[in-house]
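The following block was generated as part of the benchmark described in Methods. Ligand: 3,4-dihydroxybenzoic acid.
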Amino acid sequence: MAKITASVFTSHVPAIGAAMDLGKTQEDYWKPLFAGYEFSKQWMKDNKPDVIILVFNDHATAFSLDMIPTFAIGTAAQYLPADEGWGPRPVPVVKGHPELASHIAHSVIQQDFDLTIVNKMDVDHGLTVPLSLMCGEQDPVKGAWPCPVIPFAVNVVQYPVPSGQRCFNLGQAIRKAVESYDEDLHVHIWGTGGMSHQLQGARAGLINREWDNAWMDKMINDPVACAATPHINYVREAGSEGIELVMWLIARGAMSDIEGGQATGPAPLLRHRFYHVPASNTAVGHVILENVEKESP
Ligand code: DHB
Ligand code: FE
């Protein structure tokens, strides 16, 4: 059986990708940010998954106002890095896992979550920046990401957006789906986006360190209460783009301590936690959790 062994949470700021692609990671502005991911890159090597389910949001790149899926799962064999206006990032093509993705689609839809099936999609910074942060620089042609990736896109750009509670519940359905897949795969689930930031309007530039860190505490230690955070709190406290954080709750809901909407099992192990301001207009948050095996009765 496949199982989820760990979850990774990280912001996805596009300027981080540009800093890596342009060789600026050791500049004074960027150095402290990249230092926070040194542990993570080694951890990825030591805990290489067979597949990553990467929960992210598209930024009007693959989808537009023409079509707005709330939840979309990528079932393709590969995904090309998108051109977001400056040409595609020089990073490897993202290989998919059509078999596991199709199985998850089947199982999660049968558990009453409506997913859009995506057989062709370019992936923007929402997906490639987390991969770059966790896996380091990769040659676009000779290099490769360490394993196949299942892109799982959530609409947090155009209202109405899904609630944190629904995301948390969806995470539980994804775990059930993974655990009913008949192959011994180690799967990571990543929740990306956030933390506090607002890119437009009168409050552009908003950062809220205190709220971010309190939310991160709750996400780790009291996820059931965290999932109940109303969407308006994200917007008020963490800015209009702070709503990206609901995607972290999909990954948190997929951890093995959560059963029937409650935290029942042993809490996951906190392997790494990092917070840094600023990266472009954004506060960056990053957490790694590992599942702890339940003791057999
Ligand atoms: C920035 C952050 C984002 O999450 C995004 O999608 C685009 C830009 C920024 O801070 O510049
Ligand atoms: Fe974003």
